[in-house]
Amino acid sequence: MRIAANQLQFEIIDEGLAHQPAVLFICGMGMQLIGWPKEFINGISSRGYRAIRYDNRDIGLSAPMDHLGIPNFLLGFLKYKIGMQASPPYSLQDMAIDGLKILETLGVQKAHLIGVSMGGMIAQRMAITAPDKIFSLTSLMSSSSAEHLPGPQPDVLSALIVKPAAPGSEEAKLNALKFMNSLRSPGFPYPPGYLEQLVEDNMNRSSRPQGAMRHMLAVIADTQRAQLLGQIKCPTLILHGKQDPLLPFACAQDTASRITHSKLVAIEGMGHNLPPALVPHLLAPLLEFLDQFPKQ
The domain containing residue 246 runs over which residues? Predict the structure, then answer.
């Protein structure tokens, strides 16, 4: 379903009934809404929640932003490394307003937020910006983005900083597969062929490597969010893998230290992805957390 929000078009999947408590699933960098495992979505919707997923701006079937030009990620990354402010085409705050406007368009007065990776950062900004609109925040394999935190492992970084390939090309597919393989969860391997099929499904649906690069610039430019996390007042659950190769576990620890009403759950063997075998280990603490809120 396509909706208009924040003067842009967004592709969403809205599963559930209007009277059920809404859960907004916020995708990570370059991630399409089909990247959420169906077992994860079903585990939450079957508990009586309205599950709302959407493609972020500039990715999937939502509004393209190619008029903003080809992103110079290497320049932005170098500026970040030497302490200069990067200048992204749009910010994570812009994307947080997207999420809030989507809820408004759908008639949702208040929602639970589940954000993965960059989506967790967007969710943090949503909770800061509109606390009266948020029941709870779940920050999944995300970060405070504080300056002192460790960065990605070398193989993840090399997969991140490749030049954007032509959309839909074999090179774009191989780049995506290399990056997703680098995010592995050592304790929860993908079934044979699963990751290859996921990449194929994503490419067949949409291929926007330049959009993913613009997402990345928005992430590295969001350097002030850590100082704002103390403003988050809603109950917060932080789920993070002990073996995360992109955003090391210290990122979750720092986030938890900055959000007063937060609980950190560490998952042994989890990296920075969502393989099917990992889903039950996420759902158990997440459903316990969500079920403490009244359903009315």
Answer: 2-290
Whether 295 is in a domain gets the answer no
Q: Where are the beta strands (DSSP E) in the chain?
A: 2-5, 8-15, 22-26, 50-54, 111-116, 134-140, 236-241, 262-267
Give the containing element (helix H, strand E) for 72: none
What's the one-letter identity of residue 115?
G
Write the pLDDT tens digit of every residue in 30-58: 999 999 999 999 999 999 999 999 999 99
Q: Using only C-alpha atoms, what is the Rg of the chain? A: 18
Domain of 84, CATH number, reads 3.40.50.1820
The rounded distance, in Å, linking the Cα atoms of 242 and 248 is 7
Instruction: Outline where 29-114 has alpha helix (H).
Output: 38-45, 73-81, 92-105
* CB of 188 closer than 8 Å to CB of 269: yes
Q: Report whether pLDDT(85) > 80.
A: no
Element (H, E) at 86: none
Q: Are 120 and 237 in contact (CB under 8 A)?
A: no
Considering the domain boundaries, does residue 223 fall inside one? yes
Which pLDDT belongs to residue 56? 98
- Mean pLDDT, residues 228-238 taken together: 98
| DSSP secondary structure letters along 98-135 | HHHHHHHHTT-SSEEEEEETHHHHHHHHHHHH-GGGEE
Q: What is the reported pTM? A: 0.95
Let me know if residue 194 belongs to a domain: yes
296 domain residue, yes or no: no
pLDDT for res 73: 61
